[in-house]
Amino acid sequence: MTEQAQAGDWVQIHRIVLTPEQRPANLPDETRAVPLEMRTKGWLITKAATLGDEVTIRTAIGREMTGRLIAVNPAYGHDFGQAVPELLAAGDDLVALMRDAKES
């Protein structure tokens, strides 16, 4: 992964939006115990930066945001998580239930 970025590069930043102390009391304890974090992608406005530097970016909708540089040319990585064994047969089970209901 590239550690240097120049103005105009596609980058990702990270920022703590709310610390645990700033989070509202009506949240579950597990949620309130951790900071609210933001990760945003956009084009680097700052002239040059290294991973970990505080930078400003312009997002795809034109918003300027500041945060700590965490990636240069970040990938679009996402998935639907691990397979849940209990759900693998759910479709077949549903079809069988519907077939039985139709026959009776």
Automatic annotation (TrEMBL):
Superkingdom classification of source: Bacteria
Specify the protein name.
Answer: 2-amino-4-ketopentanoate thiolase
Q: What is the lineage of its organism?
A: Bacteria, Pseudomonadati, Pseudomonadota, Alphaproteobacteria, Rhodobacterales
